[in-house]
Design brief:
This protein is mainly alpha-helical. The protein has one domain. 85% of the residues lie in helices and 0% in strands. It has eleven helices and no strands. Helix 1 crosses helix 8, helix 4 runs antiparallel to helix 6 and helix 10 runs antiparallel to helix 11. The two termini are 36 Å apart. This is DUF475 domain-containing protein.
Amino acid sequence: MVLKTFGWSFAVTALGLVAAGFYGGMTGLGIVAILSILEISLSFDNAVVNAGILKKMNAFWQKIFLTVGVLIAVFGMRLVFPVVIVAVTAGIGPVEAVDLALNDKDMYQQLVTDAHPAIAAFGGMFLLMIFLDFIFEDRDIKWLAWLERPLAKLGKIDMLSACIALIVLLITSATFAANAHQHGGAHVDKAQTVLVSGIAGLITYMIVGGLSGYFENRLEEEEEAEHEAEEAAKKSGKPVSAVAMAGKAAFFMFLYLEVLDASFSFDGVIGAFAITNDIVLMALGLGIGAMYVRSLTVYLVRQGTLDDYVYLEHGAHYAIGALAVILLVTIQYEINEVITGLVGVILIAWSFWSSVRRNKRLELEGSTAEA
C-alpha cells in the first residue's frame, strides 16, 4: 500500500538527491533534503484539506487532480515561479534569469542578493497573513490553548490580521531605513522598495484568499443545487442526471483545489528563499516535497485517517509564522540556513508528538470509562 502510493515520490527523491549531489556536493544534497522536508511540513495541512475535498470527487476527477495538478504544482509553481520572482525583482527577463542561474552564478547571486529585501518583504507579509488568520480564528481543537484561546478572542476584531501585518511592515521598513542612514545611506532607496513589496505581498494574499473563498462558495452552491435536484427528482419520479451535476461540482472542486495548492506552493517557494538562493537546488527540493504532498493526499484519502493527528495543522501554521519572522529579519541580518530549515521541522515534530500523546490520553480515558 505504502510503496504503491509513494512509489513515484521515492523514485523522484532518489533522482533528485543524486542530481543535487552532482550539482552541489554534500552541501547541495543537504540543502535539497532540508527544502524537501520544509515543503512537506509547510504543505501537510494543504494535503489534509486536499484529501477532505478529493474524497468527494469521482475517480476521473481524482486522476485529473493527480496528473494535471501535479504538472501545475511541480513544474508551474516550483520550477517556473522562482524564476519569475527573481526576474521581476531584479528587472530582467525570465530567460536571462535562467541563463544567469546556470552559467553565471556569481552575477545571479548578486542580483538575488540585491533583490532579497524585496523578496523577503513580499514573502514575509504573505506568510505572516496566513499565520495571523490562522491563530486569530476560534477553533474547537486548540494545541497551545494558553496562547490560542486569548488570540481567538482578539480575532473577533475585524481586519486585525491586516492591521498587525501592516504595523509589522511599517516597523520593518522604518528600521531598515534608519539602519541604512546610519551606515551611510547605501540602502536608503531600498527602504521604499521594502514597503512597496510588503504591501504587494499583502494584496497578493488577499487576492488568493478571495479566489479560494469564491471557489469554495461555488462548490457549496453546486452541492446544494445537486441535492435539491435529487430531492425534486425523487418526488416527481423522474431520473436524475447525476453525472452532469457531479461533473460540474467536481470541476469547481478541481479549480478550488488548484487555487489552494497554488497558495500553499507559494509559501513553500517564498520560504525556500530563506534557505537558499540557488534556483537549481530550490527546484529539486521543492519538486521532491511536492511529490510527497501529492502522495500524502492520496494516502490520507485511501486510509481515511484525516483526523488522527489533530495538531499537525497547528504545527504547520506555526512553522509558517516562524518563516515569516525569519524572512523579515533577513532583510537586515543573515540567519544560518540550517537554523531556518530546522525551525519548521521541530515545530511539525512537536505538533505530531502532541497529537500522539492526545490520542493515547483519549484512548486511556475511553478504556477507563468502559471499565
